[in-house]
Amino acid sequence: MCRHLVFRMASRQIAAGLQGACMVLLAAVMLVLTAISSSGWCNGPAGRLIIFHAGSLSVPFSQMERQFEALHPEVDIQREAGGSTKMARMISELGKPADIMAAADYLVIDENLIPEKASWNVRFATNRLVLCYTERSRYADQINSGNWFEILARDDVAWGHSDPNLDPCGYRSLMVMQLAEKYYKRPGLYQRLIEGRPVRNVRPKSVELIAMLRTGHLDYAWEYLSVAVQHGLKYLELPDEINLGNPNYDDLYAQARVRVTGKRPGTWIERRGRSCVYGITMIDGAPNREAALAFLEYLFDPEGGLKILAANGQPPIVPCRVSSQEVLHRVPETLRKWVAVDR
Amino acid sequence: MNGAALAFKGVMATGVLVSALVILLPLSELFVQTSLQGMVDALKDPQVLDSLKVSFSAAGLAAACSFVMGTPFAYLLARSSFPGKKLAEGIVDLPIMIPHPVIGIAILVASSPHCWFGRLLQQAGIEVMGTLTGITAVMLFVGLPFYVNTVKNGFEAVPERLEKVARSLGAPVHSVFFRVTLPLAWRSILVGLIMCMARALSEFGAVVIVAYHPMIAPVLIFDRFTAYGMRFAMPVAVLLIMVSLGLFVLLRLLNRPLRVGA
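Output (C-alpha cells, whole complex):
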C-alpha cells in the first residue's frame, strides 16, 4: 500500500516536472522566434517606420501606406501629420524620432533640418492654391475668378486660412492675396481682406479648415488644389500669375512677402513667394534606415507613390529633382536612379 | 505586532509612497527644469497673461452657469425619487466618459449653421466657434457633472427631517431651501464650484477643436510646445500648475469636516 502511494506521488512529480520543462522550452522557442523576426533575420525591411508629413499629404500618404504595407507586411508605417513647419520643428527642436520628413514647402527642410538633422532634400510634388467652398457657402452660385475678392470682403462671408507660423499653406494663402492685389490692380485689397478676417478663422493645420467648411462655420477657405479634390470640395481656380502653381512665374511670385515667427517667440523670418514645391528627406540617423530607403524607393517610382499622388490631384515632379550635383551625391545610392539634377 | 500586521502596514505604506511618487515626480521635474528666467519672461509675455485671462474667465463663467443650472438638478437628485432617476444620474455622468475631442466635435456640429440649433444661435447672434462663448460651453459640458455630483452629496448629507420639521412649522418649500438646506450645504456648493472650475481649467482636447483662438492656457502650452519646443512651453505649464495647486489647496481647506455645533 505504502509503495503504491509513494509510486503515485513520484509519478505525479515527474509529470509536473515534464510539464514545467515543456513550458520552459516553449517559452524559449517563442523568445527565439520573436528575436529572429524583430532582428530582421528574415530578409527585407521590417519594423516601425515613422513618417512626419504635411497635413495636405494625408490622403495620398495613407493610400501609399496601405499599398506599401501590402508589399512589405513586416513594416508598420506610423504617420504623423501637421503643418510642415511644426512637424520639422518637432524633429529639430524637440528631437522627436522620425525616419522621413515630407514638407509642403521644400524650404522648410532646407531651413529647419539641414544640416543638423538631414543632408539632402528631394523635390517630389507640386501644388497650387485654390479657394474652396461648398454648395452651401454664401454666394457659392455667384463666385468666379473676377469677383472672389469682393465676395470675401463682404461682412456676411466667413473665410479663413491656416496659421502662417505653423503651416506653409497659411503663408501661401496670404501671398496669393498679396499677388491678387497687384494682378487685379486693387491697391489696399490685401489689407482690407486681412482686416475683415477674424483670428478665430485661422487654424493651425489647413485640413482643419475643411471641418469648418463642412459644418458651415466657414464659407470659404484657402486650400491646396489636391486637398480640395481629395475631399470633394468645390473650388475656384485662380490665374497662374497668382496661384503659386507655375514655377515659370517664380519671379512674379517673389513679390509677395510674409513675416512668420522664427525659432523663438519674438523672432521673425520673412518668407518670399515661390511656387509650391514639396520636399522630402530621410533624417540623419533614422531609427529604421532600411525601411525608410525602401519606402522612398517606392515613393520616387513613377508607377508607385508618384502615381498615387497624381491620382489624388497633386501633380508629381517626374523625375524627382535635387538642386545640384552636390546634393545628388548626398542622396543614398539606391535612390539616385529616381532623381535628376535641376537644369 | 505580529508578522501579518506588519506586512499589511508595509504594503499600505508602499502603496502611499508609490502613488505619491507617480504624481509628484513628473511635476517636480517640471518645476526643477524650468529656468527662473523663463518664468520671468512668461510672466511678462502679454500672450501668456491673455491666455490665463481667457482660461480663468471662461472657467469662472462655466462654474457660475453650473451653479445656476446644477443646483436645482442636484437638489432634485438628492431629494426626490422619480421613474428614470437612474437614467438622469447616468446622463449627468456622461460627459466624464466621452473622449474629449468627441465633445468638441459634437459641440461644433450642434452649433453649425446647417443644424437647427446652430441656426437658432445664429439668429440670436451667438457665435460658438472660436469665441469665449464656445470655450465656456465646452467647459460647462465637462465641468457640470463634477458640480452636480458634489452638490448632490452635500444635499444628501443634510438630514431630511430638518426640512420636514421646518415644513411642519409652516415654512413654504422655497423658504426651507434657502433657510435650512442651503446654509447647511453651502460648503459642498463651494467645493463643487472649485471642482468644476479645476476641471474646466485643465480641459484641452475639446476646447482646441471648438476654439483654437482665443487661446486658453493649455492650448497656448501645446502651441508653444509644437512651435518652439519645451523651453518655451514649460514656464507657462508651471504657472498653470501653481494656480491649479492653489485651487486644490483651497478645496481641501474648505472640505474639512464640520465641527460639532458649528
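The interface with chain B takes residues 82, 85-86, 89-90, 93-94, 136, 165-166, 198-204, 211-212, 215-217, 261, 263-265 of chain A (CB under 8 Å).
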